[in-house]
Amino acid sequence: MILKRYTILAAILMLSFTGAFAQVSLQNLRCELLQDPLGIDVVQPRLSWEITSVQRDVKQTAYHILVASSVDKLTEKDADIWNSGKVNSSESIYNQYAGATLKSKNKYYWKVKVSTNKGDANWSTVASWSMGLLQYKDWEGRWIGFDRYFPWDNQTEGRLSARYFRKEFSTNKTVASATAYIMGMGLYELYIDGKKIGNQVLAPAPTDYTKNIKYNALDITAQLKQGKHAIGVILGNGRFFAMRQAKAYKVKTFGFPKLLVQVVIKYTDGSTASIKTDDTWKGTADGPILANNEYDGEVYDARKEFKGWSELGFDESKWLKSEYVQEPGGTYEAQLNEGMKVMKNIAAVSITKRPNGKYIIDFGQNFAGWVKFNVKGTKGNIVSLRFAESLEPNGELFRTNLRDAKATDTYTLKGEGTETWSPRFTYQGFRYVELSGYPGIPQKSDFIGCLVSDDMRTGGTFESSNSLLNQIFKNSWWGIASNYKGMPVDCPQRNERQPWLGDRTVGAYGESFLFDNTALYKKWLDDIRYAQKEDGAIPDVAPAFWRYYSDNVTWPATLLFVSDMLYKQTGDITVLRKNYPAVKKWMGYMKDRYMNTEGIMTKDSYGDWCAPPVTAEDGKGVNADQKHPSTLIATAYYYQLATMMADYSTITGNGGDSAGYVALASELKKAFNGKFYNAQGYYGENKLTDNLLPVYFGMVEERHKEKVVKQICYIIEEKNKGHLSTGVQGTNFLMRTLTAIGRSDLAYRIASQKTYPSWGYMIENGATAIWELWNGNTAAPKMNSQNHVMMLGDLLIWYYENLAGIKAAAPGFKEIVMKPELIEGLDKVNGEYNSVYGLIKSSWTKSATDFKWNISIPANTTARINIPAKSVGQVKEGKDKATDVKGLKFIKMDEDRAVFELGSGDYSFVSEL
Fold first, then answer.
1. Where is the Alpha-L-rhamnosidase concanavalin-like domain (predicted)?
2. SS3 of 743, please?
3. Span(s) in the chain for CATH 2.60.120.260
4. 32-36, 629-633, 832-836: lowest mean pLDDT where?
5. Does residue 364 come out as left (phi exceeding 0), alpha (psi in the -120 to 50 range) or beta?
6. What is the pLDDT of residues 100-149, one digit of tens each?
7. Domain 808-912 homologous superfamily, CATH
8. What is the second-level CATH architecture of the domain 3-130?
């Protein structure tokens, strides 16, 4: 699933065999690290493909890859870049390129031929990729911009107008290909002859620009015919010119927007040409975008538009000569994670006129993005849109939780018929919009909500017989999508929107079942490593737009937890290898400074962040931004990290570290039990989280485990009346711990609650995403985002791994274990997950007498399935006894489960209960 973010797609090829063989197809030829196949900077890309077949138990036995400089040369005889020859291997993912040295700006074509245990396939269709600018010297242009304020800018309020740049040029020959390489800081839009290039928005992905800068490569071949052309770029502020600059000690800013462009043109006669940024470009900041700010919105005056500004013949005499400016300082890198774009259009549900003459537009869904609208009126008429997640009891916008974010777009009409507008360089988190200054009576059809998120496909689906579980899943999808912004942010609405590490420690794992998010999280791990200080310290926010280095254990632990997730979900060991040194350095940093002589980690910042008040009323008006440091949580997490590092040191070729981590874990476990275990059978203060962590991490001594498990169940069943009482840290491991101790029924009871505190309580109180706080409707408004994901914990993991029964038994789902939990009251689950090998399906229903289960296993993988049954003789596959079906290997009866091993294919099981 993660791999597909970086995918080159080839057309589906149906490969037929003679004789008894049915059709086999190879689809989705993939080159890892490619979303857009242009401009990659990986000199040894890895190639992957999916195999699909109507037959069962299809396994690859060999492959043959060809890479060539042209399609014509892509034959076994002529392949001039790489001919792998026939390689006996079952690996269909991450096969590393091993041909000639790849060169900047060159395009490469490839195809693959696979052999399977069912026969040999024909050659696949052709896919391609192109290299970016691999060396610093390959960038011929210079950075241009205006490193200053203009009279109409407001430095105090962070209002800075957009900058516009343009240049005309000629192509004197027939163009074979043309690519624009662009770094527009902080955000850009590129135009050729008046047409915007690409459907990406808010590009490029944000980074710490002093560390690394992402460039995009855009194919403009179709736009460049022989003759004269004009190129134009608009620069917005993004994260480069920081939204708030009053607290320089906290907020990192990088200067004024700036631009580096290089257009590489290849002609049919083999010659080349470059168009690059220099001081022959003209620019202005006196355009229609008067201000643009991620927190505050966009101010646009259509009266100041320059008609045809990016087209030939525009009068640029009043524009300024572009100025050379200092480069940002970071390493130039190709953006390999998906760009953002408008992913969904959302219709307005209602428009209500208020007594003050303004209107409230309800889109029926909390999401992140903007509004696109039509308007017709008098020149100079100002339309204002103010955004909010919910309404006050009197029907007005509730905006206190936005803090000082203005979250307002304004549009001044030019008065020329019907005008259509949406902002370029901002986004807001909202459901409701207050509309003022709109001429005439607004109609719902004139307003479209645009969900802006990273351009990744939904990788999984889930549906059950429990409508509440289904609605929680839907709310989760919207919350996750809203907070993918080239990095995972905490919320999309207030003056924060920061990539907090602690929000995704486990959350990233659950998200990976819904979204093909590998590229995003690989990029984010890079952000975290770039933010690491020389002494090993890792911040709480990365990129470190806020300078928060609090030296706690749980937030920086995300670096290893997300690496672990990517390895397990995709099988990509390079993620571990790449991040292992940074984790090792940080582990040593924390141990040297904060582990006392007793073996306890003494430093924590947040504790079980945002644990719920006993009742919603108890939390009424209370500010939830309260830290309750916990050495128990810090020590438990540090133990888990040491245990993981003991394993990964060996896996990554750092076996010499393993013994040290084993010894460290042993020391921590002994100290933890000596310090925090109470003879009455609980840990710490006997909070639910205090007991969950040592059970899940395997820290409880065997002789005490039964007592601690009883305490967990007692707290939930008796003390909490079937509810949770966990903050972020406990919720991360809540559902899986309960399932592991044999109480999936208790996990289901928690998930099905509609009263406080629960996910259902949020929905009962109007939530269409996930709240930041369990009592988000009563807490002080400073911190009660209505579109957050940190409180999902491991819920989505539980949905897929335990309810649908789709879990990796080996990294990347090469081996799959399927064991759905049967829980009283849950009669149906249908789950699908796109693994790196292909689609995995699990659809089951149960009645009082039988269990029906349809599953799909992708080619080149195997599965161990656990079918509920009284005996193996009562299990059928199709119309036959399962034990009589070829390819089904009965392993054993495991209590009330018949365990089989099987290969790829579609299966239908029925068993008696």
1. 353-452
2. coil
3. 139-337, 341-454
4. 32-36
5. left
6. 999 999 999 999 999 999 988 888 888 899 999 999 999 999 999 999 99
7. Maltose phosphorylase, domain 3 (2.60.420.10)
8. Sandwich (2.60)
Residue 96: both structure tokens together: 């590393």
Phi, psi of 302 (to 5 degrees): -65, -15
Residue carrying structure tokens 């209590």:
895
| Residues ≥6 apart with Cβ < 8 Å to 803 | 462, 464, 469, 820, 821, 823, 826, 829, 831
Q: Could you tell me which CATH class the domain 341-454 is placed in?
A: mainly beta
Q: Quick one: fold of 460-802?
A: Glycosyltransferase (1.50.10)
Rounded Cα–Cα distance for residues 538 and 582 (Å): 9
Longest dimension (CA), the chain: 87
Class of domain 139-337 as given by CATH: mainly beta
Burial of 169 (0-12, 13-18, 19+ CB in 10 A): middle
Q: Which two tokens stand for residue 826?
A: 């849950």
Distance of alpha carbon 532 from alpha carbon 553, whole angstroms: 14
Mean pLDDT of 377-401: 97
Alpha-carbon torsion angle 221, 225, 229, 233, nearest 10: -20
268 Cβ neighbours under 8 A, 6+ residues apart: 173, 174, 175, 176
SS3 call for 544: coil
Q: Confidence class of residue 13 from pLDDT cuts 50, 70 and 90?
A: very low
φ, ψ for residue 587 (rounded to 5)? Answer: -60, -45
What tokens were used for 877?
């596959």
Phi/psi of residue 907, each to 5°? Answer: -135, 150
At 427 the three-state DSSP class reads coil
